[in-house]
Amino acid sequence: MSRTATVVNFILKWLIRMAVQVEDRELANIPSQGPLILIANHINFLEVPLMYSHLYPRPLTGWAKVETWKNPFFAWLFNVYKAIPIRRGESDLGALNAAEEAMKNGMIIAISPEGTRSYVGQLQQGKPGVVLLALRRKAPIQPMAYYGGELFWKKFLRLRRTHFFINVGHPFTIDTHGESLSRDVRQEITDEIMYQLAALLPPDYRGYYCDLSQARETYLCFESGVTSNLLRAAETNQIVRPK
Questions:
Q1: Which CATH class is domain 3-236?
Q2: Residue (of 143, 136, 215, 140) closest to 172 by Cα position
Q3: Domain locations in the chain?
Q4: Which of 112, 189, 190, 200 is geometrically suited to a Cys-Cys bond with 167, CB 3.0 to 4.6 A?
Q5: Greater pLDDT, 36 or 95
Q6: How far is residue 35's CA from residue 141's CA, in Å, rounded to a whole number?
């Protein structure tokens, strides 16, 4: 990582720590390098600078909407982080290829399958772009869930620090079992992935994926000895067994 990125990370982390109390112990569970797809929920602006600054010096990049580059400051910042512009609402093969190449070079790709911010903290239905990337690169997927950040502005205006919680789950891969990758199958796999993310969140934050009893793992594979993230729901007194 460049010296500029090092300085930017230091400043961002200091600023964030001034306004936010980050519970980041579980970030130690994220590997030091890729190839890896790190999926996360998206509440507001806070996650991106927090993720980059707190995962440093891991080689991290991710997709960001192409409109971001219209703002000179954000264009500069996202170029420092080597973010990959993506055109939302369409099949952006260029963004897919760029992410695949980045992982080939050992980078971690951070993706929000929801595609847009929720603001209120509840999960929206995931979009299937992550499935194509994971299958093309045969890369593991690791879920990382945030919560608490939705209260940032409310607490900031009252001069109070926000508690920002981060839970990191176990990685897994996708196996289509030779099935044709139709739109319905891609969405089904995406929903299976999103349930793994939902299980890392308190029940009130699970949104579209609130009913964990509907979760399936038909296309997900965990390494031997690694348990499903659905079992983590036991912490909220809602034990869900994988199906």
A1: alpha beta
A2: 140
A3: 3-236
A4: 200
A5: 36
A6: 9
Chain center to CA of 46 = 13
**Residue (of 15, 98, 91, 112) closest to 54 by Cα position:** 15
Q: Considering only CA atoms, which of 98, 33, 102, 44 is closest in space to residue 66? A: 98
Instruction: Please state the rounded mean pLDDT for residues 127-143.
Output: 91
Which pTM value belongs to this model? 0.91
* Per-residue pLDDT reduced to its tens digit, 217-241: 999 999 988 889 998 776 655 545 5
Q: At residue 242, does pLDDT exceed 60?
A: no
To which residue do tokens 């500069």 refer? 76
Position 220: which residue type?
A: L
State the DSSP string of the chain.
--HHHHHHHHHHHHHHHHHEEEE-GGGGGS-SS-SEEEEE---STTHHHHHHHHHTTS-EEEEEEGGGGGSHHHHHHHHHTT-EEE-TTS--HHHHHHHHHHHHTT-EEEE-TT-S--SSSPPPPPPTHHHHHHHHHT--EEEEEEESGGGHHHHHTTT-PEEEEEEE---BEE--TT----HHHHHHHHHHHHHHHHTTS-GGG-GGG--GGG---SSEE--TTPPPGGGGGGGGT------
